[in-house]
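Continuing the batch. This is chain 6 of the set; chains 1 through 5 are on the previous pages. Same settings as before, nothing changed between runs. Recording input and output for traceability.
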Amino acid sequence: MATDSAASPAVQTADQPRGFAYALTVYCMWGFLPLYFKALAHISPFEVLAHRVVWSVPIAALILLITGRTGDLKTALRSPRTLVMAAVTATLITVNWCTYVYAVGSGQTVEGALGYFINPLFSIMLGAMLLNERLATTQKVAIALAFVAVAILTFEAGRLPWISLTLTFSWGFYALLRKTLPVGPNQGFFLEVAILSVPAVPYILYLEATGTGHLLNGTTSDVWLLAAAGITTAVPLMIYGNAAKLLRLSTIGIMQYITPSIVFLIAVFIFHEAMNPIKLSAFALIWTALALYSWSMLKNYRSR
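Output for chain 6:
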């Protein structure tokens, strides 16, 4: 799914209709992903994660062959620094994936949605703390509201919303470090899943050898669902890569809320997860914070 080079200059000045279609497609795919994970709720998150990794490797490799970017990959493989950085980002994405699969399977999808609602606000805070980026007043208010929402949820549950925070921290630091990885998005993704396949392949073999795995010992639906793990993991990421090239940053920033919004609706109306007034008030604060963040981002973009 290579992007035409002719489209590159337009990326900086205007949104392309094709980019909007890509973004809408990928955010909806990610939004409905809990339905897929719910069908795998009877399987350990670690086994699901291992299959996501292993089945993604051939898909990512095929994309590199089709786009002719294997040369860049060879250069990356000869760089110990790049491999170490890829190992770190691979670890972070492993934590993120496993936590999300667990959240859906254990009936805590609402908390998972909250993590992805908070994430852009956390990314702003990271930029200010680590990259010395200046925060607008509205952005500071938005971050403060997010902290208040987390405090409310902590009080309501009697514990920190660890699923939301783990998803937020792991994805926030992943996105930050991924920017410094000196390879393209598709090559970086292949490096990550290739590194993760080193422990994932033996783990799957062990499960199948002991009769506890679901690829050879599960039902027909288990086999098909696990085999589809690579497609559900790799394809959306590649579509997103094309969308990012064809849309302005502000457009991508606004559209990213499609995913957690769909996840939230699925959790409440399909999975019937509890939503009491206290939780709803916390989400109301988050939505207010996101509205402030989006308004600040659009205002900033127009002023430039």
